[in-house]
């Protein structure tokens, strides 16, 4: 049985996963940015272990919020596009198969394996846009769901928590962490706005803390990007 590092609040990890999902799954909107600003995302983001990445990420977001107005939304959308969507090849392609498959194509063997894993644990998606399931933002959504199950089970001593925890460990160890760090590294290198510079650093810190909390060591895999 894998034990949790209880020094980290699981509800904070769940909240961070949810924010990362909503921030990276699609182009930013004025409503989303208004919600982040209203809730002071930079100041209320969990400190976790108070790492340098965490501190710098929150500093970037603080700078972004301080000078934000809706006229900058176009530039923010352009930044999201060049990082994660296109036109052309995104600088930080958000799909796992691009990194794990020698051909560098979408829906490759690693995606099929992930789909089989999701089927085995009862995970499905109701997506607004057709999207390969190995998009990094969708991983954050599944992490959110599994952490919610673990938290609920801890409060009620239900056995489902052990199942959810083992599923989360496998998800991280075999399907996400072997490549997601490279995606975030490329995003940090090419981001042109403080919003995405900050968000990517916070995502890197989140993944490090989550892996440490669950005592997960990613499987070594060759990356092709």
From TrEMBL:
<dbReference type="InterPro" id="IPR050289">
    <property type="entry name" value="TorD/DmsD_chaperones"/>
</dbReference>
<protein>
    <submittedName>
        <fullName>Molecular chaperone TorD family protein</fullName>
    </submittedName>
</protein>
<dbReference type="Pfam" id="PF02613">
    <property type="entry name" value="Nitrate_red_del"/>
</dbReference>
<dbReference type="InterPro" id="IPR036411">
    <property type="entry name" value="TorD-like_sf"/>
</dbReference>
<dbReference type="InterPro" id="IPR020945">
    <property type="entry name" value="DMSO/NO3_reduct_chaperone"/>
</dbReference>
<keyword id="KW-0143">Chaperone</keyword>
């Amino acid at each position: 049985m894998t034990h949790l590092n209880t020094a980290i609040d699981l509800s904070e990890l769940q909240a961070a996963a949810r924010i990362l999902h909503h921030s990276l799954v699609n182009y930013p909107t004025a409503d989303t940015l208004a919600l982040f600003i209203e809730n002071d995302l930079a100041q209320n983001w969990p400190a976790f272990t108070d790492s340098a990445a965490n501190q710098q990420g929150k500093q970037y977001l603080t700078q972004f919020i301080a000078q934000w107005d809706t006229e900058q939304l176009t530039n923010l959308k352009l930044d999201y596009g060049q990082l994660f969507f296109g036109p052309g090849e995104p600088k930080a392609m958000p799909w796992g198969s691009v990194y794990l498959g020698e051909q560098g194509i979408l829906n490759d063997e690693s995606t099929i394996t992930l789909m089989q894993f999701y089927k085995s644990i009862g995970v499905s998606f109701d997506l607004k846009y057709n999207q390969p399931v190995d998009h990094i933002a969708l991983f954050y959504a599944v992490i959110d769901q599994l952490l919610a199950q673990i938290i609920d089970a801890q409060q009620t001593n239900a056995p489902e928590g052990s199942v959810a925890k083992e599923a989360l460990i496998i998800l991280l160890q075999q399907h996400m962490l072997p490549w997601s760090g490279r995606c975030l590294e490329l995003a940090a290198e090419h981001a042109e706005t403080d919003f995405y510079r900050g968000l990517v650093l916070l995502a890197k810190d989140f993944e490090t803390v989550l892996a440490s909390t669950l005592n997960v060591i990613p499987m070594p895999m060759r990356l092709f990007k």
